[in-house]
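Case study 2.
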Amino acid sequence: MEENLINIKLEKEPELKASVISKEELIDRIYKGESLPQDKRFLSVEKGGVFEYFDLDNLTNPLTSDLSYVIGEEEGKIVGLAELQRSIDNEKKIWMKFLSVDPIFQKKGYASKIAGEIMRYVKDNNLTLEMSSYSSEEGWEKLRPLFKRLSEEYGVNMIDEERKML
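Prediction:
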């Protein structure tokens, strides 16, 4: 009797990667050497982009040289990002303006991975992290427990939108 063999392909879980990149590196990834964005996911949400709060004008504005980004990647594709800006009044303070994950990739741990990379960066550079007061209340309420836990775990000073040290 001949047996039917079924080949089961076990797919490896995609590796979640997070890293800090410069404004220029993000420009290179979005524009790919062209004058218009080649990755349309970075357009405003109203124009079909996927990263809430990301503003392409901030990225291309020559006055915003103090920006850096923490990106979450899956197989070389940026699926989440956070924007960090150095404080103009205190060089040891960095402001997290937003953290956003492409809706297709939400609920996969990217926000946590990006938040952990932010904390590592803040700790390694002996900075204080200040959270944006512009985030939606709903968004910040979701992230607050994560950032509170990570700030304690990494030993990072963090100021929330109410200007209270956590």
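The mean pLDDT is 85.
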